[in-house]
Design a protein that fits this description.
By secondary structure, this protein is of the alpha/beta class. The chain has four domains: 3-139, Rossmann fold, CATH 3.40.50.300; 146-217, Helicase, Ruva Protein, domain 3 (Orthogonal Bundle), CATH 1.10.8; 229-235 and 262-390, P-loop containing nucleotide triphosphate hydrolases (Rossmann fold), CATH 3.40.50; 398-502, Orthogonal Bundle (Helicase, Ruva Protein, domain 3), CATH 1.10.8.60. Helices cover 47% and strands 13% of the residues. The chain contains 21 helices and 14 strands. The strands form two sheets. The chain has a seven-stranded mixed sheet, with helices on both faces. A seven-stranded mixed sheet has the order 8-10-11-12-9-13-14, sandwiched between helices. Helix 17 runs parallel beside helix 19 (457-465). It is elongated, with a radius of gyration of 29 Å. The relative contact order is 0.08.
Length: 506
């Protein structure tokens, strides 16, 4: 147990924090910390299955429920300093009698000079009743730093007397970032049992084990994808920028040692159906790291503090699987109205929590936030420093539309050199990427039904004329998006159309 953790817990006790809620699953780690700060205290433990037990040897002392336990120990704080260690009682915290007893102990601790009792609630699930909100301090055990992870790996290899190159240890240590000591040792044991050594190949094993943590928690979604950067038609400025960042992720340990900052992420704003979601998937493919999606709506809970705890867990999980891409799709819907008069209080707190994490994070979680309409987004979210860069994705220009048509035809093995790109570009003015994909799909379907072997320019143009583009169906929304974008400093994702002089009305 790190000394800093013990120091923080000790300071909470000295400052008369009556209830310290420790959000953790490893009871032994917490017990060790409580022992260190409670050398002069009487430590009494309640276990949900066994009742009153001996804190030191864990043997059952008296079978009782939580209400009876609290009544038995209610006045212990008058005799000597007392620690009441309550494990996995979160389901009991909707019982009015339990709440009243916990409140009574808390108030005695705060207001009676001759009474000293601190309650430790230990659970990996945080439930905070409204009546106890002002008495509870939630404490998260800090995760090991890179230096501490290196110490854990070196200690493990020394115990087993196996030789591992220092470069490999440094590389693997970065993959372990975001895991606790227990999880790191578990994976090291698994890696050693699997091949009898520790090497670079074990990074894949670490990744698979991390994915298990995500699946079990259910707060983030692991996104499977087959898309690559080559599936994006155009957006050359954005793609060039991502290629530069990919070189850093491919050589992360060396880049950090050289003094390069770990990339934070990007925000991609712009028209619906123009490749923002595709870019999130292509980024993970290019960086060769997992893609996880955060849906803020799934984090909302019914208890006080539950939503904030879910956000904290989700962000910790993203750190646990790092390096990874954390994709927040349509982020404006998650945090719309924050800071305004009608803004939801819980959403505002979640936004503040997320903003603080973004600002302070020193991990290898690369954020890809996508948005259509940012007119209701808080301006502080758009400030430089939150993201490495902000990109605007406009409707594709002529050259980009040609590339998108080619990509979708080649993907379906229907591209041929006789197709007139210029004619198609002129016909698809105002179409987005999704519109163009729909045109190609519709054309191929018609050709199959009509018994054709190939498709022609005329076939494609016929489908184009039967398709209503986004420019016609969402004309007002597009105008509003462009008006908002003009007010902020944002980089265009596309280059200027090099072939603009060739096209009419483009």
């Amino acid at each position: 147990m790190k000394r800093t953790t013990v120091d923080i817990l000790s300071s909470y006790v000295d400052a008369l924090h009556p209830i310290i809620y420790i959000n953790h699953f490893d009871f032994k780690v917490i017990d060790d910390a409580i022992k260190q700060i409670g050398t002069n205290a009487r430590i009494v433990e309640y276990n949900n299955a066994l009742g009153l037990i001996d804190f030191y040897n864990k043997s059952p002392m008296q079978e009782c429920d939580l209400e009876k336990f609290l009544k038995l120990t209610l006045d212990d704080g008058f005799e000597q300093e007392t620690f009441l260690v309550l494990k996995d009682i979160h389901k009991e915290l909707d019982n009015p009698k339990i709440i009243s007893l916990l409140k009574r102990i808390s108030e005695d601790n705060l207001y009676k000079e001759n009474y000293h009792a601190t309650i430790f609630i230990i659970s990996d699930t945080v439930v905070i009743p409204t009546e106890l909100e002002n008495y509870i301090t939630v404490f998260d055990i800090p995760l090991p730093s890179t230096t501490e992870i290196l110490d854990i790996i070196n200690e493990f290899t020394a115990d087993l007397e196996i030789e591992v190159e220092q470069d490999i240890i440094s590389d693997i240590a970065l993959s372990f970032k975001g895991l606790n000591e227990f999880q790191i040792k578990q994976i090291l044991n698994l890696a050693y049992q699997d091949g009898g050594c520790i090497d670079k190949e074990d990074k894949l094993l670490i990744l698979k084990e991390k994915e298990q943590f995500i699946k079990k928690a259910g707060m983030l979604e692991i996104v499977s994808f087959s898309e690559t950067i080559d599936d994006i038609g155009g957006l050359e400025n954005l793609k060039d920028w991502l290629h530069r960042k990919a070189k850093i992720f491919a050589n992360l340990d060396k880049a950090i040692k050289f003094g390069v900052d770990v990339p934070k992420g990007i925000m991609i704003i712009g028209m619906p159906g123009c490749g923002k979601s595709l870019t999130a998937k292509a980024t993970a493919s290019l960086f060769e790291i997992p893609l996880v999606r955060l849906d803020v709506g799934r984090l909302l809970g019914k208890y006080v503090g539950e939503s904030e705890n879910n956000m904290r867990k989700a962000l910790k999980l993203s750190e646990a699987i790092s390096p990874c891409v954390l994709w927040i799709d349509e982020i404006e819907k998650a945090f719309a109205g924050v800071g305004s008069e009608g803004g939801n209080e819980v959403t505002t707190r979640l936004f503040g929590q997320f903003l603080t994490w973004m600002q302070e994070k020193e991990n290898t979680v690369f954020i890809v936030a996508t948005a259509n309409d940012i007119s209701r987004m808080p301006p502080e979210f758009m400030r430089k420093g939150r993201f490495d860069e902000l990109f605007f994705v406009d409707l594709p220009n002529g050259e980009e539309r040609r590339k998108i048509i080619d990509i979708h035809l080649k993907k379906r093995k229907k591209w041929n050199k006789n197709i007139d790109s210029i004619a198609l570009i002129n016909e698809t003015n105002g179409f987005n990427g999704a519109d163009i994909e729909a045109v190609v799909k519709d054309t191929i379907e018609r050709a199959f039904i009509d018994g054709k072997i190939t498709i022609t320019t005329e076939d494609l143009i016929e489908s184009v004329r039967d398709t209503k583009s986004i420019s016609s169906t969402l004309k007002d929304k597009i105008s509003m998006i462009k008006a908002t974008i003009e007010k902020i400093d944002i980089k265009p994702a596309s280059r200027e159309d090099s072939g603009v002089h060739q096209y009419k009305n483009v």
